[in-house]
Amino acid sequence: MTKLVSSEADVLPAAHRALDFWRMLDELDADTRLLRDYAVTTMPDGTRKLRVPFALRDAHRMRTDLMRLALQHAEVAWSTERMRQMYDAILDVIGEVSPDVQRLVLDRLRRLQSELKDRDGV
């Protein structure tokens, strides 16, 4: 069977080109760590002391937001993969019954994908 979608980049082409989610998440996490490190100081005896309470609070809020974003991204990726598996299963069964019908369905899906790319300017 011919695969309609070959990679994650094909699934979300505009989003993939618009931003590198994981790189940006890493950068935001580094900023959060910097803010947290600034908020807490280590004393000569090894104990940690809170120097700027609001900075630590803000760092924790930032990390919570980052975790929420990462989970949402993972959910979209998981859902997209499940949909791809479902489409592949449907097309496989159609192909077993009628390769001609499978070809027609794939052609229509490709046209739809092309129309969406043209419409979105991707």
At a glance:
The protein is mostly helical and 122 residues long. The chain contains 5 helices and 2 strands.
Describe this structure in words.
The structure is a single chain. The chain is mainly alpha-helical. Helix content is 79%, strand content 5%. Strand 1 and strand 2 (48-50) form a beta hairpin. Helix 3 (21-39) packs antiparallel against helix 4 and helix 4 (53-97) runs antiparallel to helix 5. The relative contact order is 0.12. The model is unreliable at 4-9 (pLDDT under 50).
Computed CA radius of gyration, to the nearest angstrom = 23 Å
Overall pLDDT metric: 83
> What is the overall number of helices?
5
Task: Say how many strands there are.
Answer: 2
Largest sheet properties: 2 strands, antiparallel
Residue fraction in strands: under 5%
How are the strands of the biggest sheet laid out side by side? 1-2
Keywords, separated by commas or semicolons:
mainly alpha; two-stranded antiparallel sheet; 79% helix
